Amino acid sequence: MSGRSVHSVLAGLACLAIIASTTSCSSVGSSNNMIMCLESERQALLQFKQGLVDESNALASWESEKECCKWRGIACNNQTGHVTSLNISSSSDAHFYSKVPLRGEISPSLLELQHLNYLDLSFNDFEGIVIPKFIGSLSQLKKLGLKACNFSGHVPPQLGNLSSLLTLDLSYNEDVSLEDLEWLTHLSSLRCLDMSELDFSKFVNWPQSLSKLTSLTELRLSLCNLPDVNLGSLSLINSSTSLQLLELSDNFLHSSILFWIANVSTNFVSIDLSRNNLEGGIGIPIGFQSLCSLEWFRLLGNRYSGNIEDSIKALSCANNTLETLDLSYNQFLGTLPNLKHFTKLRELDLSGNRLQGSLSESVGQLSSLEMLHLLGNSMTGVITESHFQNLSRLQDLSLSDNRFSMNLSSDWNPPFQLARLDMSYCNVGPAIPNWILKQTNITDLYLHNTGISGSLPDKFWDLLPGLQQLDLSKNRIHGKLPNLSTTSLSSFCATSFGALRLLDISENKLSGEIPDNCSMQFQNLNSLNLGKNNLTGKIPSWRITFFRELFQINGKLAIDLSSNNLSGRIPYWIGQQYLVILNLRHNQFHGTIPLSLCNLGSIHVLDLSHNNISGDLPHCFNSISISAAGDFNKYGHMMMVVVELPVRNTRIIDMSSNYLVGEIPDSIANMDAMASFNLSRNYLTGKLPEDFGNVKTLESLDLSRNNLSGNIPAIYASLNFLGVLDLSHNNLSGRIPAGAQLQSFDASVYTGNFGLCGPPLTTICSKDGTTQGDGTMTGNATKEHGSDDLRDLGLIISAVLGFTSGFWIVCGSLMLKSTWRYAYFKFLDDSRDWIYVKLAVYKAKMQRRLER
Q: Could you give phi then psi for residue 726, rounded to 5 degrees?
């Protein structure tokens, strides 16, 4: 079971234990019975429905069925017939489900439902209206759910009149603000409170206010900009003996919050402090030793540097209760201590720290363990069968980015069946171990840079139909990709291979042609990397069907077939896909650039360099619009949370080292969001396009080693972000435009243009702007096509470094760096509800805009 699942179960149990069958943080209305509802309440519900826009017809039963107690989302009292529950939440896991969120107004007719004790409108879209004040008059309410409803304005203080309220959820209404917290302190019966993503930044005394809610058992305040706790005020805070679940993730809290937690309650079952600013060298405070009921503890993504053994000892009181321990992505030091006393531990994540030493064999005694993540440390030693002795429940194992060696016998039968395995950077080879071939339930397999060599055994291909992610990159695997005509096994081309999302077999020694006699059905694939092998032949025709299906279903794709020996023309159909990366670098493609590439509206990296492509440059590249790139930024921001690097809507275009001729079309210079453009080492003629001077996003421009002529346009001096420039070895002439930008480059970027003059060159310009004398420049106009000197290597390195903040650092690092990849997918898993909320609200807003 995942951490999120455990958390949800704990949340439900905590409230159920306290408020029994009445209501809970995650409960739903009671079941309908054969009882007649009151006509006045029936009419009130119909009037409420009239104010809603029900595009998916989720409330159809409200029209077809006369008896309102049988309506969807409605529950009534068994004896009186009064409506007691109205649950029209559009959440995918709620009692009531609508494919399209309801919209519209909330009618005050609900005031007729004076016996209503359960009202849940979560995950609908009320289009920015203010939370109605009249809700504070529904005096019998015990649960009020308004999560992610797209409300705005202030929280009405009238909600403080709901003295019977046990559960209040106002979370993820990003446009809702709080004037004060006084109204909240009147909810004396409140058990469960979720106000995540509401701004608490001005409430420095929030701990004092919340401490007045002495019945509170669950508190969720993620993404709330919480101010730090003032340690001097701890004595003024009433210690609550009931608080059991605490979520304060994604704030800016410092270590003082831990002292408040240690003092506020001893009954904690679940604590989440992920992604704050917690730091220090003392480890987890000693006060945590009194938390003997703790089952779920997360400190992910902080900056603790204390000894890992001391911190785990601070939790020793919970060694018979702790089920999830996540201290990942901190700076904890030391060696892994004996863990055998944590008998109920199901998830252990110590990834991304600075742990050293060997893996304690006590891990093999954790018979309840389902997930073990140690990736991204500096651990060493030999992994033996003793480390897995009693791990029959293990499903998720990651030991990558350490220096482990495997010493497992070839006939070892593991006691577990894994769903995910990451052994990247460990010494696994030279052959794929038999115990991995026995993992028939595996969906994610990462064996990047594990020393595997030779050909893959036939049994390996039997794992493929169930795989979602496969990374065998940077090994020494040779042989050919499997072909259905030579084997009856499931293979690279299997039609049942539809679950695969990532396939990376790059940087190996695979040879031969990509099979062309099967129809691939990878309907979920969004990243394919076969680069840096020895593949030959053409891109097979079956990819037409394959990518068209992907285009219709998935959208964004990345294709990397670089550094092979593929030949033929670039297929026309490849430009009909929704690609963000197309890398065909270092192959043998010939012919002209297909006009269909102008359709790549989402492209961020287009690399056709080092091929034999000829002909003119297409004039249609300006049709590639930034509108699609905007979508990337939405998802790119989500990735940025993990890798902590900026993601921008930029494009990198490289068509260097080919045989392109003719002039550079002005349309290319008009492409949106161009950051890097390289046409060097071709046979281009004509003048430099003036429109390049208007591309304010341009950071790298390399047009060197062509036959370009004329002056450097004066507007180029205004390219303030330009960090890499190379115009060398052309036939340019005239004065280099004055301005700090073009004069800041070394003279070598202009060398080989005998007609150029002015700083930074030493050649002096005459009054008419031409060269005076032969100057001091040397060189010749001989075409040096295909030669790479040290200066060009430096230029390439500079360009690459200049754009690591773009798409490659996000997508490429996730594929190649397993620690970041795991952090990313872990972040997605932990943020599932938050992402659902954001996408639902965004979708609803876009639908409204389209209607208008």
A: -145, 110
Of 158, 102, 104, nearest to 129 by C-alpha is: 104
Q: Is the peptide bond before 760 cis (omega within 30 degrees of 0)?
A: yes
CA 473/CA 445 separation, integer angstroms: 11
Q: Cα dihedral sign for 197, 201, 203, 207? A: positive
Residues β-bridged to residue 381 = 404
For residue 783, name the pLDDT band (cuts at 50, 70, 90). Answer: very low
Angstrom distances, CA of residue 824 to CA of 6, 183, 296, 381: 20, 39, 21, 27
Question: Would you state the pLDDT for residue 709?
Answer: 93
Q: How far is the C-alpha of 378 from the C-alpha of 400, rounded, in Å? A: 10
> Tokens 């409200």 belong to which residue?
62
Number of other CB atoms surrounding residue 850 within 10 Å: 7
Give the DSSP letter string of 457-507: PGGGGGGGGG-SEEE--SSEEEEE---TTT--S--TT-TT-TT--EEE--S
Of 29-38, 190-199, 559-568, 727-736, which gets the smallest average pLDDT? 29-38
Is residue 708 left, alpha or beta, with left meaning phi > 0 and alpha meaning psi from -120 to 50?
beta
Q: Domain segments of the chain: what residues? A: 555-686+695-705, 709-722+732-782
Q: State the helix-helix crossing angle for 3-19 and 818-830, rounded to 10 degrees.
A: 30
Q: How far is CA 542 from CA 537, 569, 573, 610, in A?
A: 14, 15, 11, 25
Phi, psi at 681, each rounded to 5°: 60, 50
Q: How far apart are CA 76 and CA 567, in angstroms?
A: 71
Question: Phi, psi at residue 304, to the nearest 5°?
Answer: -75, 140
What is the homologous superfamily of the domain 555-686+695-705 according to CATH?
Ribonuclease Inhibitor (3.80.10.10)
| Residues sharing a CB contact under 8 Å with residue 852, sequence separation 6 or more, in sequence order | none
- Can you tell me which residue has the tokens 């620690």? 819
Phi, psi of 226 (to 5 degrees): -65, 130
> Rounded to the nearest 5 degrees, what angle is found at the Cα of 705, between the Cα atoms of 703 and 710?
65
Closest CA to 269 of 6, 1, 22: 6
Cis peptide before 430 (omega within 30 of 0): yes
- Please tell me the distance from the alpha carbon of residue 289 to that of residue 705, in angstroms, as a whole number: 69
Rounded CA-CA distance 566/538 in Å is 6
Contact (Cβ atoms closer than 8 angstroms) between residue 148 and residue 122: yes
User: What does 622-686 look like in DSSP terms, one character per residue?
Assistant: GG--HHHHHHHHHHHHHHHHHH-------EEEE--SSEEEEEPPHHHHT-TTEEEEE--SSEEES
Instruction: Please write down the HEC assignment for all residues of 553-582.
Output: HCCCEEEECCCCEEEEECCHHHHHCCEEEE
Q: Radius of gyration of the chain from Cα atoms? A: 32
The dihedral region occupied by 835, where left means phi > 0, alpha psi between -120 and 50, and beta the remainder, is alpha
Helix ranges (DSSP H) in 711-768:
740-743
- Pick 7 or 673 by higher pLDDT: 673
Taking alpha carbons only, the member of 185, 148, 142 closest to residue 167 is 142
At 437-495, the pLDDT tens digits run: 999 999 999 999 999 998 888 888 778 778 889 999 999 998 877 653 344 454 455 44
**Other beta carbons less than 10 A from residue 255's beta carbon:** 21
CA atoms within 13 A on the CB side of 226: 28
Name the residue with higher pLDDT: 784 or 754: 754
Burial tier of 497 (Cβ tally within 10 Å: 0-12, 13-18, 19+): buried
The pLDDT confidence band at residue 665, using thresholds 50, 70 and 90, is confident
Note whether 632 and 556 are within 8 A (CB): yes
Is 668 in contact with 642 (CB distance < 8 Å)? no
Report CA 68 to chain centroid distance, whole Å. Answer: 43
Contact 554, 523 (CB under 8 A): yes
